[in-house]
Amino acid sequence: MAVSPVRQHHMVLPAIGPESMECVREIVRVLLRMWRKSELEFVTELGVTELLTNVLKHTPGDCELLVRETPDGILVGVTDFEDALPTVKDPDGDAEGGRGLFLLSCLADELQSQPLLYGKQVWFRIGHAAGREEGR
Dihedrals φ, ψ of 77, to 5°? Predict the structure, then answer.
């Protein structure tokens, strides 16, 4: 039995800005369609947008994005060069922000962050069941 190679896409995003978001989401949509995982588009795009927005707001702006196919779905990781790890907390009802990671933690099968020698990686994993549950 032949083992399928791991399909993944790695992007270096220097000085990520708001104008970059739609282009990155389009690349992610195309990857998911090529990998026949388009039912995961909604949650994956939401997660990518949240992680990149956090980079934009809380770091110098340089980051790397990894989108990897898994046997049951997708794994997305964003690496930046700020040491502070994000925290997922219940959003304050009056706050204007702070809901993104909480929402992503509810939609993804797994959401983790890990320190690196220089910076951190925040990643999430979504399986096919998550896409079906969302009706996407």
Answer: -130, 140
Q: Is the pLDDT confidence value at 127 over 70? A: yes
78 contact partners, CB below 8 Å, separation of at least 6: 48, 51, 52, 54, 55, 63, 64, 65, 66, 121, 122, 123
**Exposure pattern of 41-63 as b/e (b: 16+ CB <10 Å)?**
bbbbbbbbbbbbebbbeebebbb
Measured CA to CA, the distance from residue 122 to residue 80 in angstroms comes to: 9
Condensed to tens digits (0 to 9), the pLDDT of residues 61-95 reads: 789 999 999 999 999 999 999 999 998 887 776 66
What pLDDT does 96 receive?
Answer: 64
Which residue did the predictor score with more confidence, 99 or 46?
46
Domain count, the chain: 1
What is the domain extent for residue 42?
8-133
> Do the domain assignments include residue 2?
no
